[in-house]
Structure formats: C-alpha cells, structure tokens
Amino acid sequence: MSTKSREYFLLNELVAQANEALPADLTLTERTVRYYMQNGLVGKGLKISELPEEFSSKIVQRGNQRYFTLADCTTIVDIRTALEKGASIELLGGRRPQVNDDQYLSPVLYSRSFEMSEIVSDYISLPEVQEAWSLQLRSDLTLNGTGARPNVDTIRELQKFVNLNFAPEQTLQSSDEYDYDDEPTTGRVRIEIELVDIAAPFSGLLVNASNAEVTPGGGASGRIWEVCGVNELSPQRVNNKLPLKPGQVAFTTAGRGESRGFNGVIHAYGPRWTSPVDKEFLNKGKKQVPMNGEEQTLVRTWENILAMADEYGENRLAAPLISSGLFGYPFQDCAEVTFETLLETPTRVTHVHIRTVSRRSFDQLVEARNRVLRKLDIA
C-alpha cells in the first residue's frame, strides 16, 4: 500500500514523503529528522498503543516502532525550508544545539552537505525497533514479548512452571472436542530434496550445520552466515548455552536473511563420524556400523531440531544433510537415518527441504528418501 493512501507511516516513509515535496537540493535524511526531534522542533511520533484501533490492528510486527502523520511531514518540510533561508533553531522554537558560537552562527551548520555526526547525539533518538515474538507455551496459553527471544532452556522452564501452577482453561472430555491439529503428529513429514543454494529464498526456519561454538564454518554453514550476517548473528550467541554438545541446538534470528523469508536459524551441532569405515560395506551399499554412538546422536540432533521448530511455532524447515560433510558421516547412512527420524518423530513440522548444490548428492538423496519410504511403507 502506498504511503500516500495511508494516514500513519514509519520514519523512513516520513522522510521519503518529505523529500518528494522538497526541491532536489534540499533533501532530508533520517538523521536530520532525528536532529529536529532532539532540538524540540518536531515530535517523536506515536506508539502503536496511541494509534486508532482500525490501523493498529493491521500491524503484524508489533514492537516499539513510532508512527508519523502527514502533519509531521509538513512540519519537517517547513523546518528544512526555513533553515535553508537562514532561520535558526531558536527562531523556529527549538533548543539551541550544543555547539560553539562560531559553529552555531555558521550557515554551514544547516546545509545539506554538513556532517551532523558532531552535533547529533545517537543517545537521544527514537527507540530502536525490537523484534516482536509470540511463544505458545500450551494450547490455551501464549506468551508475547519484544526484544531477545527466550532460549530453549528458558522455554522449557516456563512450560514446567505453567503446567505446575496453572490448570488448563478447558479440559477436553471427548475425542470429538479435541483439536488434533494442535498436537504433534507421528511422522509423515513431507521431505523435499532440492538442488539449490542453502540460502535460496524460503519461508520458514533455516537449519545450519553448526560447530560447538556456533561460529561461521565452511560449506553450507559459511554460506548461511554470509547471507544472514556475522554482525547480526554473533551477538545472539550469548542467548544460548555454549559450547553445544553433540546433538544440541541453538537459535538465532535470521538477521539479514529475513529479507529472503527466513524466520530464524536453528544451529545444530551434529555428530562427527569417528567409527571405522568398512570399504567393503561401502562398495556394496551396506550400512556402516556406528560404534561410537553416532547414529543415536544424529537422531537426537534431528529430534531437537524438530522440537525447537515446534517451540517457535514454525512448520517449515530448510536444511543441509547434517554431519554428512566435514563431519564425515557416511552419506547414504546419514541420509537414511535423517529421513527415518523425520518421518517417525512426533512434530508439528509439515515440510522439511533438504538442500544441496551437488547433482550427485541430489540423486543420492532422492534414492535414499525412496528407500526409506518403501521401508516404512509410506506411499
């Protein structure tokens, strides 16, 4: 929807509207408008709670963002025009900026080319927009908040506390009343094999084959960090209990990857294959013998991935074949264990897209999926 047809809009939209009304040599930036706010020339906008219900009810991402009106647009256009004509901040009714007299009286202060970093305080600014999140602790109880999302351990403790101290609002008496869609179902996840970049646009959660410290790695992991942004994801590591043990998972937002549709990233630390590899078995297509618990750890890894997706209310995942690369898990065995786990684990996840950029791996994944479907007698 065009901002011209709306009554309320965000700061970047306010600046864009103002620049449409100004001459080309009198452009505004968000930083300039914040400067006007700092000096009392224009208000800092309306909170969501201050907006009319018919507008606020349509806002999907509900954080602490501020909204502005066409009156605010007119105000900042008038301010910019007046300053260009020689008016001062004080003359326009604002507070005098904290600069020396020579700088204050200089016309350069208000020119388009002036670098305002020396006089505009980043401390005095609009609140940073925080991510809004919603967490379903139970079928009858949802927790909403903004800022850092609770980690997995915190969510589990919250669920224990809720179940211990709060009885459900309604006890379901019969199977006819029960909402089966809200419960995990046993298996039958739809597994899609894709010959595509791991970071290709996708609506759902992205799964990263991580190391124990949840830091950028090679291959698919490096690509995920590249697209989502090291600077965006690294600060969120403190929200997770690190280092991860084999089979454990951690969660971060998708950072810049949100522009590709990713709703978050599950970082999964899968097992390293340390058992002997029987080349005769490998040549005959027989399953290797995991002597150091690798198979159980891989199963646990995927169970934890699905559990975390359920906790975050997501039902679509895009993932590489975890542990099959640098971690050395024999490819066919890794694929079959992965697919069996996905199909037999109770979960609300409905679609898992296993991605690879190798044509050979793609063909092997399709064959492995078909073998597992036949083994489990799934059409």
From TrEMBL:
Pfam families: Macro
Gene3D superfamilies reported in the protein's UniProt record: Leucine Aminopeptidase, subunit E, domain 1 (3.40.220.10)
Domain Macro, residue spans: 178-373
The name this protein goes by in its record: Unannotated protein
Species per Swiss-Prot/TrEMBL record: freshwater metagenome
Lineage per the UniProt record: unclassified sequences, metagenomes, ecological metagenomes
